[in-house]
Amino acid sequence: MTTTDEVRPTLRGLGRRWRQRREAAAHLRRLLPYAGSGLVALTLAVHVVAGAAPVAFMAGTGYALQRVVTGEPATPWLATALVAFVVQQLLAPVQLVLSRKVQRRVDAACIERLTSFAFHGATLAGLERPDVADRLAQAEEAFEQWTLTPGAALEGALALTARYVQLVGAVTLLAVVVGPWPALAALVVALVARLGQTEGFFRWGGLIRSFGPLRRRVTYVRELATGTRAAKEIRVLGLAGWLEDRYVAENRAVLDPTWRLRRQVYGVPFAVYALVAAVGSVVALLLVARTGADVAAVSIAVQAVALCGRFGVIFPESDVKLVYGRGAWEAMLELEDAARRTGTPAGGGQVVRPDREIALRDVRFGYRPDRPVLDGLDLELPVGTSTALVGVNGAGKTTLVKVLTGMYTPDAGSVLVDGTDLRGVDPEAWQRTFAATFQDFLRYELTLRENVAMGAIDHLDDDAGVTAELRRVGLGAWLDGLPQGLDTPLTRAVPGGRDLSGGQWQRVALARSLFAVRHGAGVLVLDEPTAQLDARGEAEFYDTFLDLTRGVTSLVISHRFSTVRRADRIVVLDGGRVTEAGTHDELVARGGDYARMFEVQARRFAAAGAAPPGPASGGVPARTEGETP
Ligand SMILES: Nc1ncnc2c1ncn2[C@@H]1O[C@H](COP(=O)(O)OP(=O)(O)OP(=O)(O)O)[C@@H](O)[C@H]1O
């Protein structure tokens, strides 16, 4: 490789990084309004005075020394040095307090912005994108650790003011006492060393950021080993040793390249810039010596050159915070940008409520454009009727719900509400139409009341409604036995709290959806509502299913025939489209996929000497997408 080839990429790299620095500065400026102009102005003023104080101290001590040597009165200069010293000491805590205030204000606003974005600005489609999830994790990590946040970055940037005031002061003083050339030499030393060190450190920040997903894997394995969630399986399956080895391997996968990069980024450049600083300082001092300076000039020059030389180190109050905190802020901005580009954000469009039917017409949708999950799907959900959806694992049942509820927009075809395309409808208002219990429903570590009333949170005070729904899902007797009743926290982490069994949690989630219906949600979606219920619970659900869904437009997804057979209409999803539709009896009489699945299941029950799938438990036989029924 020729010398030119070696230089070119470096120059290009420097040009690119200069642009990056300017962009980073522009990003940071966007944080200023969060801190407030008054606080920023006050903080800057304090940093300016705090930066000027050491320079005044330098001048004071230098000239006082000169006076002492020549026998002149040194008191005014000694007083200057003393005042400068006291000011410096007094301002240090003030700087700290103001900096913390800047950080707190900015971080509070950023957390609000992040939360508000997650709730209102981002679509589910956006949040489910891997790059968005990565950025979100990075931003969350920053707020968890609390030290390397966007607020810290701004605070660090403002604190640089004191350093640069010191530099300008020292160089000016040097120019005054020993002339321009030593001053210029010291300035060049300071700026070259500063540029070199920060260049390496900023590059390092970018590299560390790219390790985010790997670091999160290490954290995941560690939490798996130390948390309680996996504790049962780890013991029963004897996974402790394997997990330990896995942790060591994953950790090395992060640490080895980190150390390698650290050597590359810091090692040689650090030595080079340290050398530049040392040689430059010596040159500056030699220039001072050649000027035949007096005692004051020598004293000031030595201090000023030393101060300039210190520009070759990483400033702890600024640089670390700037590099990492800036990363978190940029992750937030990228997150918003990426999520905004995915799907329609909530907030605009018409508000509709179905009067006749919700229809999916020739819907095509895939998480990746080349792999459609729904492909030419037609389905009607007449208002006030119950529809059950069956299909093998991975057939796209949950995906259909996401499209139906407007969380994803179809790639082709449309979802029509009484003829109005969902694309023109306000997604947030449309989602309020639904009451849904998903397979992966949430177990909120809140009170029992809150867990249920979250279905219609504006009715949090409707204790009668909460209690009625808990009774409807079969938790009446259990509720009566709770000393704290609806106030019981559903977590063991709180005194008096209860942890529930899987089935009990599912009933609470069902009660939540029913509470939503009670307060006006028009469409009930139940995705595997009985998966965690015991046979009796499932039978009870089956008995009350019609009652639970009477007059409500409902869509039930289940592998269990006992759950689906009472629905007004059953549809079979296969290959991304509806392949059969009708009542249970019609579909059995037709002798298609549904009938075959039902028959297999009925035989299994007959062989086991149990009742065929009906009020008792039963299920669509296990099969995965791709197998023929
Ligand atoms: N967020 C996502 N990103 C990418 N692919 C996804 C996502 N969610 C689901 N898929 C894929 O889409 C397909 C359909 O998944 P879906 O969850 O809709 O199936 P399902 O019929 O509900 O399955 P099950 O009966 O197991 O719950 C599967 O191949 C799944 O891997």
UniProtKB/TrEMBL annotation:
Superkingdom is Bacteria
The annotated topology with respect to the bilayer is: Multi-pass membrane protein
What organism is the protein native to? Cellulomonas wangleii
Listed transmembrane segments? 31-57, 77-98, 167-193, 266-288, 295-315
Q: Does the keyword Transmembrane helix apply?
A: yes
Q: What is its main location?
A: membrane
Region ranges (Disordered) = 608-629
Question: Record's PANTHER family?
Answer: ATP-BINDING CASSETTE SUB-FAMILY B, ATP-BINDING CASSETTE SUB-FAMILY B MEMBER 6
Gene Ontology MF terms in the entry:
ATP binding
| Classification via SMART domains | AAA
Its localization reads: Cell membrane
Which keywords fit this entry according to its UniProt record? ATP-binding, Membrane, Nucleotide-binding, Transmembrane, Transmembrane helix
Q: What is this protein called?
A: ABC transporter ATP-binding protein
Domain ABC transporter span(s) in chain numbering: 358-600
